[in-house]
Design a protein that fits this description.
Layout (H helix, E strand, L loop, with lengths): L2 E10 L5 H11 L3 E7 L2 E8 L1 H13 L6 E10 L7 E3 L20 H7 L43 H8 L20 E4 L8 H13 L4 E4 L4 E6 L3 H11 L7 E4 L2 H7 L4 H7 L6 E5 L13 E5 L4 H8 L5 E6 L11 H7 L6 E5 L11 E5 L2 E6 L8 E4 L6 E3 L9 E4 L2 E4 L9 H17 L8 E5 L5 H9 L4 E4 L1 H13 L6 E11 L5 E10 L3 E8 L2 E4 L8 H9 L17 H12 L3 E4 L2 H11 L11 H11 L11 E2 L2 E2 L2 H12 L4 H27 L3 E5 L6 H13 L3 E4 L10 H10 L5 E2 L4 H11 L2
Parallel strand pairs: 2-5, 7-13, 9-11, 10-14, 17-20, 20-21, 22-29, 24-28, 29-30
Antiparallel strand pairs: 1-3, 1-4, 2-3, 6-13, 7-8, 8-12, 9-12, 10-11, 14-15, 16-19, 17-18, 18-19, 21-31, 22-23, 23-24, 25-26, 27-28
Helix pairs in contact: 5-9, 12-22, 13-21, 14-15, 14-16, 16-17, 17-19, 18-19, 19-20
Length: 771
């Protein structure tokens, strides 16, 4: 008599060709039964010889589809019901869904071959896809992932597509976005005097616009891009001017990998990232001058085409290197709805290449780097989001709201931590709206009851995200301190809950336990027990609060007020502007000044001493400028950065910078000695703490650790000290990783405070609730 078993497979197993794979595997093992998409993953019922079950499961683990990720397989005995064949059943909806949604996937090689095969029915069709590729997260509107729950539901399949969709042997079997020119959406060029709106006309004309120096808005997977010829400085300058993007580097899209290799120095690791399924923007050293694309920066961000339309544009004659930047004005979220794009980008784009398929949610391009400690994600979005990056203990749902800069949110459902795409800076209304939409989107998709949620936010009482927590009026809200969340995010990625570590959190701004502005913190502890602050950067005065982040000379005032023997910095060679004198006056009178231990502002102060005395035009610009300067300097001796008591003393460090600047030493060498001084001083402090606490593992997180040169120096020094180093890999080290750390600490009850209903929080909450 036949036996039976039930199997549940969790992970990224929907929308990636998993059910047809199971169908073929069961047929190969002569097993009957069924497979369907459930709320928690893929459910399988098998009947047949018991010996076949074991080999089936072995092959299931060993040979999943390329885009699938299996995290767990449960096998239980079941009662046979006499099935004689294996079938694929329609999805069931019984409980709250916890399945992992697949990120969007790049067009596969098989579809590319068909795209350029004139005999194929989908020849030059920009929406070609199959179960191995194409849109996922950007088109799904509900779970389970079936066609009626996607933005393709308004296009019924014709007979040709229906046949492939229903054929288990076809690679388009249950490919939910499947379509063809006869039954699916198309693209059109606007404005255009052409009578035809089809791709055959619009794509060649769009390529001509790019070739002639025009700026084109192109609808992609998760939003619009603004594109122009990267080798045309006039076009790039025009885009920069229209977009109000003064100096921040643009991303490039290379026609293919051979073109990419001519643009940047691709290591094997960097090339692996560039060609991975995520198809992110990869930062790498430039090989050629692109002054308008990346001013004062020897790194370029390069990506490869990942949609059929992008391949069609290059094939139609578009320049082989395009600026491909998010379609928005500076600091706004990416435009993804057609009417909104036409309105917001009027005057920016000369023409619009508009696709008819709706985008369910905005998803930016991801940004990554092949770092000294392994791959690091600097912006987590398309290709990665909304993947579950870890499993947390407990079943209570948790919603972590992240920070106000580079915001992401994390939703924990049945222990699985789903991290959202990059949202942006919440000071801007459109970004705040995107933040609220993303929260509602994920909570609704996973059918989480708000009454059951634990809502976690930053400790800062005036953060927009904190105010949002108050406006939600959820019964259970808790705060987690910013820098502890940074450290916890690294450990959460590794599922290290009890491991006791020394955690270093260096960034620009974060609200500390004492109400001051932290940013140069060293902790000891674990996720399970919490983190105790054991050391920090020496306190300085921050004149004018947040404005100091935009003006390095203003940030410098509070640090330099403690340094003896400085000359007049308003004269040559420093030539500080009058803003510095005004800031020093505020520090002297202790008016509108705030105590800070910010390592980010220390880098700004050093940059000011070396010549960056103007206003920054994007976050972290002065520190990036300093790193680029240091990279061009020789490997010199470090400046002193002593660890005294429990403080890293910046005074000798800045004194040495100023002294050598007066002596006329090359600023590149000064920058290098400053960077090495930071690394040596931190290494000395960590070595001291590790010996005292008998700990051997260092965790590094926070925006300052996006500085790859600093990490290279630390790698060398800490390896010599026999200390193990852990850094972020699944979420950004910047504030984009904060929400994961908040969720991890919340899962273990490590809170810093209940929701603080200060007057500022209440006012902001009211403002947000009426927005």
């Amino acid at each position: 008599m036949a036996s039976a078993c039930s199997i549940r497979v969790r992970g990224v197993v929907q929308g990636v060709g998993f059910r047809p794979f199971v169908y073929r595997l069961a047929s190969a093992h002569a097993l009957s039964g069924w497979v369907l998409n459930g709320e928690e993953g893929v459910e399988i019922h098998l009947e047949g010889a018991e010996t076949g079950f074991e080999t089936f499961v072995q092959d299931l683990k060993a040979q999943p589809p390329l885009a699938a990720t299996i995290t767990e397989i449960e096998v239980h005995p079941a009662d046979p019901v006499g099935l004689t064949e294996f079938t694929i059943r329609e999805s069931e909806h019984r409980f709250h869904p916890t399945v992992r949604i697949s990120p969007d996937l790049p067009v596969c090689d098989d579809c590319l071959k068909e795209l350029f095969d004139s005999a194929n029915p989908r020849y030059q069709y920009p929406y070609i896809n199959c179960t191995n590729c194409g849109p996922r997260y950007s088109v799904v509107v509900a779970l389970p992932y079936d066609r009626p729950n996607t933005t393709m539901k308004q296009w019924p399949l014709d007979a040709f597509c229906e046949k492939e969709y229903r054929d288990p042997a076809n690679r388009r079997f249950h490919a939910q976005p499947v379509a063809c020119p006869a039954c699916g959406p198309d693209y059109y060029l606007y404005p255009s005097d052409e009578t035809s709106a089809g791709t055959n006309d619009s794509v060649p004309h769009a390529a001509e616009i790019l070739q002639s120096g025009g700026i084109l808005a192109v609808k992609g997977l998760g939003g619009y891009h603004l594109a122009c010829d990267a080798r045309n400085p006039v076009s790039v300058a025009a885009l920069r001017d229209r977009k109000y993007r003064k100096e921040k580097p643009f991303a490039l899209m290379a026609k293919d990998i051979s073109v990419a290799r001519t643009l940047v120095d691709l290591t094997l690791d960097a090339e692996a990232l560039l060609t991975s399924a995520a198809r992110p923007i990869v930062l790498a050293r430039t090989k050629m001058e692109f002054a308008e694309v990346s001013p004062d920066n020897n790194e370029l961000g390069v990506m490869l085409p990942y949609t059929p339309l992008q391949h069609l544009l290059f094939a139609a004659g578009a320049p082989d290197v395009l600026v491909m930047t998010s379609a928005n004005r500076s600091s706004e979220p990416i435009a993804y709805e057609d009417d909104d794009a036409l309105q917001r980008l009027a005057g920016v784009a000369d023409s619009f290449l508009i696709g008819q398929r709706a985008i369910a949610r905005r998803v930016d391009d991801s940004v990554v780097r092949a770092g000294i400690f392994g791959p690091v994600i600097l912006r987590r979005a398309r290709g990665y989001a909304p993947g579950a990056v870890t499993s947390l203990p407990g079943e209570r749902p948790i919603l972590a709201l992240g920070a106000d800069l580079k915001n992401t949110i994390t939703l924990v459902v049945n222990g699985q931590a789903f991290v959202s795409q990059h949202i942006g800076d919440l000071d801007h209304y459109e970004s705040l709206r995107a933040f609220q939409e993303t929260i509602d989107d994920l909570v609704s998709m996973y059918e989480v009851n708000w009454d059951e949620l634990l809502l976690v936010h930053d400790l800062h009482p005036e953060y927009r995200s904190t105010a949002h927590a108050a406006a939600r009026q959820v019964s259970n809200t808790r705060a987690v301190q910013h820098h502890r969340a940074h450290v916890a995010s690294v450990l959460a990625e590794r599922r290290e809950w009890t491991k006791k570590v020394i955690g270093v959190s260096f960034d620009g701004t974060g609200y500390g336990d004492d109400g001051s502005i932290w940013g140069g913190e060293i902790f000891v502890g674990s996720v399970q027990e919490g983190f105790a602050r054991v050391a920090h950067l020496r306190r300085a005065a921050l004149a004018g609060g947040d404005a100091a982040a935009r003006y390095p000379v203003q940030a410098a005032a509070g640090f330099l007020s403690q340094v003896d023997g400085l000359p007049d910095l308003l004269s040559v060679p420093f030539s500080f502007p009058e803003r510095y004198r005004n800031a020093m006056e505020l520090v002297r009178k202790e008016v509108r000044t705030f105590a800070t231990t910010s390592m980010g502002r220390l880098f700004d102060a050093a940059a000011a001493l070396l010549g960056f005395t103007r206003e920054t035009t994007f976050e972290g610009q002065a520190a990036m400028w300093l790193e680029q300067l240091a990279r061009r300097g020789s490997n010199t001796d470090p400046y002193p950065f002593p660890f005294v008591g429990n403080e890293l003393d910046f005074r000798p460090l800045l004194q040495a910078v100023a002294r050598d600047r007066i002596r006329g030493r090359n600023v590149k060498e000064i920058a290098r000695s400053f960077q090495r001084g930071i690394a040596q001083g931190l290494c000395d402090s960590l070595t001291t703490i590790s010996r005292a606490r008998e700990l051997d593992t260092i965790v590094l997180s926070g925006g300052v650790f996006q500085n790859e040169l600093l990490l290279e120096d630390l790698n060398s020094l800490l390896t010599e000290a026999s200390l193990r180093v852990w850094t972020n890999h699944e979420v950004p080290p910047n504030d984009g990783g904060i929400s994961l750390g908040q969720a991890a600490l919340a899962a273990f009850g490590c809170f810093d405070r209940d929701l603080k209903n200060s007057q500022q929080t209440v006012e902001l909450a009211n403002e947000i609730s009426h927005a």
